[in-house]
Amino acid sequence: MESPAGRAPTPGALPYYVAFSQLLGLTVVAVTGAWLGVYRGGIAWESALQFNVHPLCMIIGLVFLQGDALLVYRVFRNEAKRTTKVLHGVLHVFAFVIALVGLVAVFDYHRKKGSADLYSLHSWCGILVFVLFLAQWLVGFSFFLFPGASFSLRSRYRPQHVFFGAAIFLLSVGTALLGLKEALLFQLGKLGPSRNQINSPVP
């Protein structure tokens, strides 16, 4: 079947791939929440459980919502370009705000406990990813949403924007996995030969 003039054809299997990606993303968020609730004691801001806000916010912001933002141009390829740009940017804003809450939570938790910040590979990778994410959004906003950038400049930068967007997303996933592994190692170190401290938060 011919697509309307000027519009890109939509692959027949795309809706199934998108539905699977959403199911997978929501499952990751739900499993993270269940892990924090059942095995980490839950989530709270004004207690030792404040640390648990960090992994949940990072998974929601820099993995689920950032992934959805990258899918916008595939899912809504036949919508008005301005609409997809705005939706792409807004999803990244939500991802940034939620990730920022996660960062504030872990830094505030360390401050209250008197612990050092940025003491692990995960923490340095996390800061790098967050700074790259923010820089990517600001540059993208300046080039594609803020009026004033020339068409030729946008065309030259677009491939770099797409590449760095995908790279930052993959770095986010890798950093999240690194953080979960770090949490597991902390927990195993605290448990030692006994297993009676399973609900204590990560230091």
TrEMBL record:
The keyword Transmembrane applies. SMART domains: B561. It is found in: Cytoplasmic vesicle, Secretory vesicle, Chromaffin granule membrane. It catalyses: monodehydro-L-ascorbate radical(out) + L-ascorbate(in) = monodehydro-L-ascorbate radical(in) + L-ascorbate(out). Pfam families: Cytochrom_B561 (PF03188). It comes from the Eukaryota. InterPro entries: CYB561/CYBRD1-like, Cyt_b561/ferric_Rdtase_TM. The chain crosses the membrane at residues 16-39, 51-76, 88-109, 121-146, 161-180. GO terms for molecular function: metal ion binding; oxidoreductase activity. It is a multi-pass membrane protein. GO terms for cellular component: chromaffin granule membrane; lysosomal membrane. The keyword Signal does not apply. Keywords: Cytoplasmic vesicle, Electron transport, Heme, Iron, Membrane, Metal-binding, Translocase, Transmembrane, Transmembrane helix, Transport. Its cofactor is heme b. Its main location: membrane. Residues 20-203 form the Cytochrome b561 domain. Transmembrane reductase that uses ascorbate as an electron donor in the cytoplasm and transfers electrons across membranes to reduce monodehydro-L-ascorbate radical in the lumen of secretory vesicles. It is therefore involved the regeneration and homeostasis within secretory vesicles of ascorbate which in turn provides reducing equivalents needed to support the activity of intravesicular enzymes. This is Transmembrane ascorbate-dependent reductase CYB561. It comes from Catagonus wagneri.
